UniProtKB/TrEMBL annotation:
Presence of the UniProt keyword ATP-binding in the record: yes
Family statement drawn from the similarity comment of this UniProt entry: Belongs to the ABC transporter superfamily.
Domain ABC transporter intervals: 2-228
Annotated organism of origin: Actinomadura macrotermitis
PANTHER family named among the record's database cross-references: ABC TRANSPORTER, ATP-BINDING PROTEIN
Protein name (Swiss-Prot/TrEMBL): Vitamin B12 import ATP-binding protein BtuD
Classification via SMART domains: AAA
Superkingdom: Bacteria
């Protein structure tokens, strides 16, 4: 269980995160999504006690992360796969982690096998690893204490298609056994395939959150075109219908055709096209929600 309540972070008066609230329940994978600079990594660092919040609070398994005794036995964290000792071998890194969290050394071999790092690779120094190999080693570190919660920031970076499929299966299996997963990633199609819930952040604030079925039910939205695009945009904004230009003079609207048509009619805007968009699921939802919010 992860609970985030009105988390905010300010740096010299500038707000990186503002009033972020969400919950990750056991047995689920929560996709934490947003453009670069949206506040995802800052939020995850606050959850893990690495960055003190300006306001609000976050708890993992019912208490702040810093107050969890031997947290590696309860929470697996991977925030930066590059933050590993380059001079040690992969096996040495895991052996030290096992000793630190207090698990038997046999877990080292088990985790190396679980994440697909063969014996030859485990004997190599981490400095010679590819990014994908570092991600696998980082996941092994996160899992070695047999935790109930996983907090992962961009764990699929550097993985090949086979590795991404493997990771999806690993995270889905972890959640199906009752674990809680908070997953940040730019690979939207992979997140859509594995996640039960989404939390979308833009400009440091929550833009949307909810179950996959709830958010993607109308994710394709509608495409609207008018003789006066500027007037159409104003009409949609006045009706509080999220929209973004599609690059051809039309607008992709997050909502029903009826709602978009009524908004245009009330504003006296002449429509030349109104139809269901050819949706791309989570990608379409993400672009609609975060358009214009990148800082």
């Amino acid at each position: 269980m992860i609970e985030v309540e009105r988390l905010s972070k300010r740096y010299r008066g500038a707000e990186a995160v503002r009033d972020v609230t969400f919950r990750c329940a056991p047995g689920t994978v929560t996709g934490f999504l947003g453009p670069n600079g949206a506040g995802k990594s800052t939020t995850m660092r606050m959850i893990c006690g690495l960055t003190p919040p300006s306001d609000g609070a976050a708890t993992v398994l019912g208490r702040p992360y810093r107050r969890i005794a031997n947290p590696g036995r309860h929470v697996g964290v991977l925030l930066d796969a590059a933050a590993q000792h380059a001079g040690r071998s992969g096996r040495e890194v895991l052996a030290l982690t096992a000793r630190t969290v207090g698990v038997e050394q046999r877990r080292v071999g088990e985790m190396l096998e679980a994440v697909g790092l063969p014996a030859k690779a485990a004997r190599r120094r981490v400095g010679a690893y590819s990014l994908g190999m570092r991600q696998r080693l980082g996941l092994a570190q996160a899992l070695i204490g047999d935790p109930k919660v996983l907090i992962l920031d961009e764990p699929a970076n550097g993985l090949d298609p086979e590795g991404i499929f493997w990771m999806r299966s690993l995270l889905r299996g972890f959640a199906d056994r009752g674990g809680t997963v908070l997953l940040s990633s730019h690979l939207l199609r992979e997140v859509e395939a594995v996640a039960d819930r989404f939390v979308v952040i833009a400009g440091g604030r929550i833009a949307a959150q909810g179950a996959k079925e709830e958010l993607l039910g109308d994710a394709s939205g509608v495409l609207v075109r008018a003789t006066d695009p500027a007037a159409l945009h104003a009409a949609l904004a006045g009706a509080r219908l999220p929209s973004r230009p599609d690059g051809t003079g039309a607008y992709l609207v997050q909502g029903s055709a009826e709602a978009a048509g009524h908004a245009a009619a009330r504003a006296g805007v002449v429509l030349t096209e109104l139809r269901q968009a050819n949706g791309n699921g989570l990608e379409e939802l993400f672009l609609t929600l975060t358009h214009g919010a990148t800082r």
